[in-house]
Design a protein that fits this description.
Two copies of one chain form a homodimer. Chain A has five helices and ten strands. With 238 residues, the first copy, chain A, is of the alpha+beta class. The first copy, chain A, has one domain: Electron Transport, Fmn-binding Protein, Chain A (Pnp Oxidase, Chain A, Roll), CATH 2.30.110.10. Chain A has a six-stranded antiparallel beta barrel with strand order 2-3-4-7-6-5. In chain A, a hairpin with a 2-residue loop joins strand 2 and strand 3. Chain A is globular and about 65 Å long. Chain A starts with 22 loop residues before the first strand and ends with a helix. At the A-B interface, strand 2, strand 3, strand 5, strand 6 and helix 3 of A face strand 2, strand 3, strand 5, strand 6 and helix 3 of B. Strand 10 of chain A pairs antiparallel with strand 9 of chain B. Chains A, B: It comes from Albimonas donghaensis. Chains A, B: This is Nitroimidazol reductase NimA, pyridoxamine 5'-phosphate oxidase superfamily. Chains A, B: InterPro entries: Pyridox_Oxase-rel, Split_barrel_FMN-bd.
């Protein structure tokens, strides 16, 4: 709760226009959406053409990192960085109302604005390559075969300070008009959630190799949301 | 399978670079990813700044439609349309390997390129406002209170012909190096999937109003993926 008082600056770029009552600009609200997911979408512009690339992200304070994507080739020529918008969204439900235009969805989304740069400082990059494992799988980077220098070089990590952001959340029942409430039409919510399945051990793992402790954070049937928020908490405390 | 022979044209804009062996350009592969989701991310440029907006999408042949988003205000001044990239992604699993840089994710993603325009032809718009309900909830638009002309006017639908697209899919086990296979390190996949929860009836629905037939497509515990592919099939056949 330490960040509740901190807010991102708001202007035309990040102000929530449609359903502005669903918008929030405090760090906690934005971080909660980011940390509950591992898949983000990065928007960038190349020769006037917008691209929307899905990739894996993680957060460290106000820094957002993601795994090299098609944006990498463009960034190589731009040491000063390029403007991007990184969005993380979760679909939580389908909302069925009495009239068509009151149909909606429950969701959580965070849009983050900043300048993306390739992480090329060797120390920062080594830390990022450990973080991309440990943030999701606590302690695992120390339990796997170390990366070679060549492997590290072949991997691209991109980083961005979150300059501005907004969160937008709908988590509610049906928003029917008062005059529609008595209509003999069914209304309600179909909830959806992303859950963890039964872990599949690789057939090549030698007999006798135990499941590592990091798997305990991903119990079958649990929501991915909860597992990711918990592993982020461990990562921040570590 | 009728579209297997049809492919989107490939050039620098949509060619899959990293892990090109995971890329596909045929209509069926792209449609399969689009139709298994209802949440897309739209990248567009406004005053040189990229934006990545999450919204609800649906497909009708080679036309992709989505619900009015923050891009709407920009599109109002651009009758010729603006270039966008619409991406739909699904996270299917977390892949734990023997060395850090072989860690991966299973996923399906489709990136679609085209020119977005506001749907303002009254007949096309009326059809789109019915489609956004019926594509997900077969037949429901005819069972709810009709939209007023004013409501329809206040809602924005955006449409785009898919000019180019690519699909990228990883659906595999651990990609360990041959020399790592005997290492005493655990490796495997944590599967994740998005599932449907128990439907919640609005407390305002009068007693005696039955659950409508469209809910049968969303049984508790089923994957959203399967429900959306099935409702798309019905929508196309209707």
């Amino acid at each position: 709760m330490s960040d509740t008082a901190l807010s991102y600056p708001v202007d035309a770029r990040n102000r929530v226009r449609r359903h502005h009552e669903r918008g929030a600009y405090d760090h906690d609200a934005v971080h909660a959406v980011l940390d509950a997911g591992m898949l983000c979408h990065v928007a960038y512009v190349f020769d006037g053409q917008p691209y929307c690339t899905p990739t894996l992200h993680w957060r460290e304070g106000e820094m957002l990192y993601w795994h090299g994507s098609s944006a990498s080739r463009m960034l190589r020529g731009q040491r000063a960085g390029v403007p991007v918008c990184v969005t993380v969204s979760h679909l939580d439900g389908i909302v069925l109302a009495r009239r068509g235009l009151n149909h909606s969805a429950n969701y959580r989304a965070a849009m983050c604005f900043g300048t993306a740069r390739i992480v090329d400082d060797p120390a920062e990059k080594a830390q990022a390559l450990a973080a991309v494992i440990d943030r999701f799988l606590p302690g695992r980077s120390g339990r796997v075969k170390p990366n070679t220098a060549q492997e590290a070089k072949a991997t691209t990590v991109i980083g961005m300070r979150i300059d501005q952001a907004s969160a937008k959340v709908r988590a509610a029942g049906v928003g029917d008009e008062p005059e529609d409430l008595a209509l003999p039409i069914w209304a309600g919510v179909i909830p959806v959630r992303t859950v963890i399945g039964a872990v599949e051990t690789s057939p090549h793992v030698p007999a006798g190799v135990a499941r590592p402790p990091e798997l305990a954070h991903y119990p079958e049937g649990e929501t991915l949301d909860k597992a990711l928020r918990e592993t982020q908490r461990i990562y921040e405390g570590g």
